[in-house]
Specification:
Strand order of the largest sheet of chain A: 3-2-4-5-7-6-12
Strand content of chain B: 15-25%
Radius of gyration of chain A: 20 Å
Largest interface: A-B, 24 and 19 residues
Order of helices and strands of chain B: HEEEEEHEEHHH
Number of strands of chain A: 15
Distance between the termini of chain A: 45 Å
Radius of gyration of chain B: 15 Å
Largest sheet of chain A: 7 strands, mixed
Oligomer: heterodimer
Chain lengths: 370, 161
């Protein structure tokens, strides 16, 4: 049914349909509405889950880990400082190969105290072994959450998945939402290493270098295998429900000699900038990176590249720009923009493309006129 | 914010695309609050704030003492005010309807405040932004109290568009 929903409500609806056995959460702006809505579903009986209100995000992830290792489906949601606070457990969830699904509403870290959209919070978790997807609309938040369970729990993956959406721009934006009849799209969970009292085994024991090394390689092998699982899941989603997704969403790239690359809502706004630039005679296209982990391959050869990073790694650079410089040997014009919810319009993005300086880094509004 | 959500929902019921979003600052009853709605025949990809609106809706005219509500107004843009009489809005075509009066008359009052979010949909329908049928459908999807519908009908009738 077609309705209007915020990104938060959309995620909560998808979680209800995926029906996790355990939801453990602690509220934090701007995701509070997700866990509030899920709590209402549990109270009303619409969702038969064990809802564990915990005293912190660290405990929320710890509770999900404890539940997940028994072989049941688990979900939590967080944002910025909440994610930072659960960092230790975020590592543990991936290392223990637990297919937990978490929604993260991307928001800047303080100080200065700021509640608005930025990607640095989730980027700080990028080396933990979690898969990470970034969405560009309320509909996509819903769709990606449903798919996250199937991808995480796939026997070739068995890694946690983080669904990221821009704080306020998506979490609190009301947009059309078309829900689906999930049916058998998400198969029942089967965790091969679930705790089984009939077959006692040791968990979380001291692990020497040899075994530890093998476990690390096994995470990377699954991360590589997850590419095929993501594609297969997204293709099946398109077949069943009619909405198609890729690892990277390309827009008017076929004959483009310059592409602008961004994540989330900036990636959507970039498409409007591309239309504007095309009218002016520029052969521009855009690429919206959806999956940060596993990091996709982008076809950038022979093209000028403009990257907008809504994040920064201090003393290094924009994470996406530097990643593409390394992986694709690109020489991007690296634009740092949108930090702490800074407003970036399609006119601004068109300006980045027109005035691009390949190889240089520009802090939007800092080199300019803050 | 509820008015923005209802307007977006009504536009979608008319078969259009719509998004509604708040500007987040101090979001509490009594403080100035800004919400935006975009309506289009095509999917909407713009996330930045609306700088040049086609229509400004002022639910509480006292906000005009502290905010220049016409800032960035598009050439030919229109204004809809809550109040018994239109007033001069720098020459922009301005309509007024007494939503507060309608809400009080219909006893549409929550926690001492008259509810303006549902009657205003009737006024927006009269202005041709949405259809009256979709306005009522949107209200019914969010609120079960039929007084909201009566109030929207009253605003539709009372607005001289």
């Amino acid at each position: 049914m077609l309705t209007v929903a915020t990104g938060n409500k959309a995620v909560a609806s998808a979680v209800k349909q995926a029906c996790p056995s355990v939801v453990a959460a602690y509220p934090i702006t701007p995701q509070t509405e997700i866990v509030e809505q899920i709590a209402e579903f549990v109270t009303s009986g619409e969702l038969k889950s064990q809802y564990i209100p915990v005293e912190s995000e660290h405990s929320a992830m710890a509770a999900c880990i404890g539940a997940s290792i028994t072989g049941v489906r688990t979900f939590t949601a967080t944002s910025s400082h909440g994610l930072a606070y659960m960092h230790e457990m975020v590592n543990w969830a991936a290392g223990a190969r637990l297919p937990i699904v978490m929604a993260n509403v991307n928001r800047a870290l303080g100080p200065g105290w700021n509640i608005w959209a930025e990607h640095t919070d989730a980027f700080q978790e990028r080396d933990t072994g979690w898969l990470q997807v970034y969405v560009g609309s309320v509909q996509e938040a819903y769709d990606a959450t449903l798919m996250a369970f199937r991808i995480a729990e796939h026997e070739s993956v068995l890694l946690p998945v983080m669904v990221n959406m821009d704080g306020f721009l998506l979490s609190h934006s009301m947009q059309p939402l078309q829900s689906v009849e999930v049916g058998d799209f998400i198969p029942p969970i089967h965790l091969p290493h679930a705790i089984d009292t009939a077959h006692p085994a040791g968990y979380g024991t001291l692990t020497g270098p040899d075994d530890y090394f093998r476990l690390r390689w096994d995470i990377e092998r699954s991360m590589r295998d997850s590419v095929a699982v993501i594609r297969e899941t997204q293709d099946d989603f398109a077949k069943k429900f009619g909405r198609k997704y890729d690892l990277v969403e390309e827009y008017r790239c076929e004959d483009a000699d310059v592409v602008v690359i961004a994540l989330g809502t900036l990636g959507k706004e970039a498409e409007v900038a591309v239309d504007l630039l095309r009218k002016e005679g520029h052969r521009a296209g855009s690429m919206r990176i959806r999956w940060l982990r596993p990091f996709p391959h982008l076809d950038l050869s022979g093209r000028d590249v403009v990257v907008i990073d809504r994040d920064y790694s201090f003393g290094f650079g924009g994470v996406i720009a530097r990643s593409l410089a390394a992986n694709e040997r690109a020489t991007p014009f690296s634009v740092i923009a949108g930090l702490g919810g800074q407003e970036v319009t399609y006119d601004d993005i068109a300006g980045f493309v027109r005035d691009r300086k390949p190889g240089e880094e520009m802090w939007f509004g800092v080199n300019g006129n803050v | 914010m509820t008015a923005a959500r209802l307007l977006a929902l009504a536009a979608i019921r008319d078969g259009k695309y719509a998004v509604a979003f708040p500007f987040y600052g101090a979001e509490r009853r009594g403080a100035p609050v800004v919400s935006y709605v975009r309506i289009d025949d095509q999917p909407i990809k713009v996330y930045s704030q609306i700088r040049n609106p086609d229509l400004i809706l002022v639910l509480d005219p006292s906000v005009m003492d502290v905010v220049d509500v016409l800032h960035g107004m598009k050439q030919g843009g229109r204004v809809l005010l809550n109040g018994p009489e239109p007033r001069d809005m720098k020459g922009f075509p301005t309509l007024a309807v007494d939503l507060t009066g309608i809400a009080l008359r219909e006893r549409l009052v929550v926690a001492g405040s008259p509810i303006l979010n549902t009657p205003v949909l009737g006024a927006l329908a009269k202005m041709g932004i949405i259809t009256l049928d979709s306005a009522k459908a949107a209200i019914r999807e969010m609120f079960s109290d039929e007084r909201n519908i009566t109030a929207a009908d009253a605003a539709y009738k009372e607005l001289n568009a």
